[in-house]
């Protein structure tokens, strides 16, 4: 992808260049596309390309394994895992329809797929990000009911409730990111985009209104809700654990009822710990992106392209991490995956195996 002809500086405003805005240079590549110059040597580009491809493959393999495990093993086909399954679907879509195309632009500094698909790609990227966030909210709600209100859990959390929450997460995400496809997110900054974007690059810009609203409703509100939910869960879980421990110590021989109660509570706590870690990883991966997307319009879009690519890709990495967190911290999933990759998988009755 060597460049053959420079079209020169298109951003000639000295005041703008003095304010650390990247000067725009568009080059005609061997492919005939007009893109920004390559920012790294061929060696570095190849290393980054390999890292991105490996991350994408890990995303697809990990989430596909979770989807297959839930689809195959009857013990995993329980109500809470509907959210796990749906989250894995959202994450694998990131690995299939978002990360590969983003990889080529990040490495070659050129968008080879046309401006229409550029808009579609931005839509899918924002859609999956929003869907993942609201799926984590659904999981937090289920954990909250299981730990904080176990007596009414079966009444309040039904298949109908699960379907309603999933429909809200998916359809709400679609409606929320429709402005991306309609171009509303760039109203008022069209001239700026034209002066800083090469014809065959696919750069994601948002005006002040949509960047602030997007971060607020897609990140801040869900994260605040989930943080409060898990704080309540943590306090109640510790109180329940102490209460059961005292009951066990005070009962002679530790009755079977107490043992069963303790085992059930331990499973609930382990499941809560798993989704809490997933929540923490999500915040860690996406906080830099949302911080950058809110800050950029207020500093005249001076964030350099390398920083944009880094924070955006780091957010995508979250979708590759989630399935491995499930496999690493959830015993049932660990056992299911172990069976899937062993001879036991081909034995009669493996679907009903005790996990």
Polypeptide structure, described:
With 355 residues, the protein is mainly α. 72% of the residues lie in helices and 4% in strands. The protein contains eleven helices and three strands; from the N terminus they run E-H-E-E-H-H-H-H-H-H-H-H-H-H. A three-stranded antiparallel beta sheet has the order 1-2-3, with no helix packed on it. A hairpin with a 4-residue loop joins strand 2 and strand 3. Helix 3 runs antiparallel to helix 4 and helix 4 runs parallel beside helix 8. The longest helix is centred in the middle third of the chain and has 43 residues. The protein is globular. 32% of the residues are buried. Its main location: membrane. Interacts (via C-terminus 330-346 AA) with GRK5; this interaction is promoted by 5-HT (serotonin).
Task: Describe the structure in brief.
It is a multi-pass membrane protein. Belongs to the G-protein coupled receptor 1 family. The longest helix is centred in the middle third of the chain and has 43 residues, at 208-250.
Can you tell me the residue ranges where pLDDT is under 50 for at least 5 consecutive residues? 1-19
User: Which structural category do the helix and sheet elements fall into?
Assistant: mainly alpha
CA(first)-CA(last) distance: 51 Å
Major pleated sheet: 3 strands, antiparallel
C-alpha Rg (nearest Å) = 24 Å
Average predicted local confidence, pLDDT: 82
Structural shape: globular
Protein name: 5-hydroxytryptamine receptor 4
Organism: Petromyzon marinus
Subcellular location: Cell membrane; Endosome membrane
Main location: membrane
